[in-house]
Design a protein that fits this description.
Number of helices: 17
Catalytic activity: 2 GTP = 3',3'-c-di-GMP + 2 diphosphate
Distance between the termini: 59 Å
Strand content: 5-15%
Protein name: diguanylate cyclase
EC number: 2.7.7.65
Number of strands: 8
Largest sheet: 6 strands, mixed
Radius of gyration: 36 Å
Oligomer: single chain
Strand order of the largest sheet: 2-3-1-6-7-8
Organism: Bosea eneae
GO molecular function: diguanylate cyclase activity
Length: about 600
């Protein structure tokens, strides 16, 4: 099939009406099309600006909704302190609780729908917000009634019931948050990731606070932790870790925000180390009921460890709003740029119409001839003579020269793409597709002997490496292992990534004994070589090997792979970190495998 293409009739040489006249008309049409395109772009960019402005307003309100939910959650801290000490209306704990309640009420007032605010009415459901206020009022009344009684008359069940009431307030607030997030995403689906991450950061703070609240009743009553409370602690602890694990990938996308990166690091130390250690210690004390702190002391120690979680949430939301502001500013910039460009197009086209007959049409005819030659792949080795005219015409001839060079380089590029198609992106080794071609009578391997040896190698317990250190560390182990294997095999041997943590080494014209020796050498080297991860951790890995010899033509290739695979299976079954060698005898198509022990 020819690579040439048929030229449109409009640029084929022909006789007829005046070409100059047609080109003048063409310039006028181009002017009209340019104006239409520019007006279309202005319309699109104007719409983008309006959407960016609405997004900024919606995200700002969504942040206020998340903040209100957090304020309701944070109110439990001082409430726990009040429930754990004797009633004192003017005491420090009572004053702090009053302050927190005022902040909560202000946060709810800021998200109350206003008839004149379309964004608030769309994102916040008034009925759901009224339910939150009713639930909050009931929970506060119950807390005030219980705290008014002497401490000795408050039992664990009553304290837990009041705390559960505050839990219910947060759960009543959740539909408000979810509804606001759904409306936000419905308006612009590109905001889904930010909206969900913001909600998860709020949930992280909420569940972290709940763990302290689960301990508060037992500490206040100086009683052992109930089995139910202990189970709730364990379950909530798991939720906290699960949310954090989900958030880490999303937060990693904001590496360009130093404040956010710092907040992530602080949260890891202050909460996920210090805060959870405190919870673990108090949970252990809860088995006997002998607590080393009061509820107020626990609050004073535990709440500060959650402060980094709040700063992390605020930092993320600040970054989210900063991106929204940048998007709106960018829309304004492009809108102004397109308007200026439209004016420039009009002036440029008018000037072109004046100068066209003298400075444009003749060079265009020359350019057409060059295009025809390039389309027919003629004169590719002859440089295109760049027009002496300046401006766009000069650039046109320069572009034609660039096109000629590109066409000449096409074959080289095709070969490069072929190499990329045959290479594994992670390890740089040949990939499974190339491995399969070895047994398909591919002309690319015509010079490779038919008789060949095969080593299949599998990194032992690789899933444990991924589970322990993470998939990024697993990729480092794969690359390091691949590099070690490539260094140790012969130059004419083919090292390929067979799949996952499995590698294949094809050794042409190699005896079974030599294969076993090479595999044993590789096994020992891998076992002895510590692999350093990016964080400085050193990992020791082992690998199991299966070796076999055979032919790579016809059915021999499949038989060879099965033999090596069976030998690898035997090595794995016998304890890993060893070499399995396919035997010379087969019964009913099954390969008998022996083991080569380490020297």
């Amino acid at each position: 099939m020819s690579n040439r293409f048929e030229l449109p009739a409009a640029i084929r040489p022909h006789s007829g009406a005046s070409l100059d006249t047609k080109l003048v008309l063409g310039c006028m049409v181009l002017l009209a099309l340019s104006l239409a395109l520019a007006l279309g772009l202005i319309t699109i960019l104007g719409s983008d600006y309006a959407r960016a402005s609405r997004n900024l307003e919606a995200l700002t309100l969504y942040r206020k909704v998340l903040t209100a939910a957090n304020r309701l959650s944070a109110e439990r801290g001082p409430m726990n302190s009040v429930l754990g000490e004797e009633s004192a209306a003017d005491g420090p704990a009572a004053r702090k609780l009053a302050e927190f309640r005022t902040v909560s009420d202000q946060a709810l007032a800021e998200i109350t729908p206003d008839d004149g605010d379309e964004i608030t009415r769309r994102l916040v459901d008034r009925d759901k917000l009224d339910n939150v206020r009713a639930s909050l009022a009931a929970a506060r009344r119950a807390a005030d009634q219980l705290s008014a009684r002497p401490l000795a008359e408050r039992d664990t069940t009553e304290i837990r019931s009041v705390i559960t009431g505050m839990f219910d307030v947060v759960e009543t607030m959740r539909p408000v948050v979810t509804g606001a997030m759904a409306e936000l995403i419905e308006h612009d689906r590109t905001l889904a990731g930010h909206a969900l991450a913001g909600q998860m950061l709020g949930d992280l703070r909420e569940y972290a606070g709940r763990m302290g609240s689960f301990l508060a009743p037992s500490i206040a009553a100086r009683q052992p932790l109930s089995a139910t409370a202990y189970d709730e602690l364990i379950l909530t602890h798991g939720r906290v870790l699960q949310i954090w694990q989900s958030l880490e990938h999303q937060l990693a996308l904001h590496a360009d925000a130093p404040e956010l990166v710092a907040a992530v690091g602080e949260a890891r130390i202050r909460y996920f180390r210090d805060g959870l250690d405190l919870i673990a210690r108090l949970s252990a004390e809860g088995k006997t009921g002998h607590y080393s702190v009061t509820t107020e002391q626990m609050t004073l120690q535990y709440v500060p460890t959650m402060a980094p979680l709040e700063r992390l949430r605020d930092g993320f939301l600040d970054d989210m709003l900063a991106h929204a502001r940048a998007t709106r500013a960018n829309s304004v910039h492009w809108l102004q740029l397109v308007v200026a460009f439209t004016v420039l197009i009009v002036l440029t086209n008018l000037l072109l119409l004046v100068l066209a007959r003298r400075r444009i049409f003749r060079p265009l005819l020359q350019a057409r001839n060059h295009i025809v030659a390039l389309a027919e792949e003629r004169n590719l080795d002859q440089p295109t003579r760049v027009s002496r005219h300046g401006g766009e015409i000069h650039e046109l001839f320069a572009a034609l020269e660039s096109l000629r060079l590109k066409l000449r380089e096409r074959l080289r590029l095709t070969e490069r793409l072929k190499v990329q198609a045959e290479t594994d992106a992670l390890t740089g080794l040949l990939n499974r597709r190339t491995f399969d071609r070895l047994g398909q009578d591919d002309s690319g391997f015509a010079d490779l002997p038919v008789e060949t040896g095969l080593i299949l190698m599998d990194i032992d317990r690789f899933k444990l490496i991924n589970d322990t250190y993470g998939h990024i560390a697993g990729d480092q182990v794969l690359r390091a292992t691949a590099g070690l294997v490539v260094e140790m095999v012969r130059k004419n041997d083919l090292v390929m990534r067979y799949g996952g943590e499995e590698f294949a080494i094809v050794l042409p014209s190699t005896s079974l004994r030599t294969l076993a020796r090479i595999a044993e050498t590789l096994r020992a080297a891998i076992a002895e070589q510590a692999i350093a991860l990016d964080d400085g951790t050193e990992v020791l890995v082992t690998a199991s090997f299966g070796v076999a010899t055979g032919r790579r033509d016809g059915p021999g290739w499949k038989t060879l792979i099965e033999a090596a695979d069976q030998a690898l299976y035997m090595a794995k079954a016998e304890g890993r970190n060893r070499v399995g060698v396919a035997g010379e005898h087969r019964l009913a198509g099954q390969v008998v495998a022996d083991r080569v022990r380490a020297a």
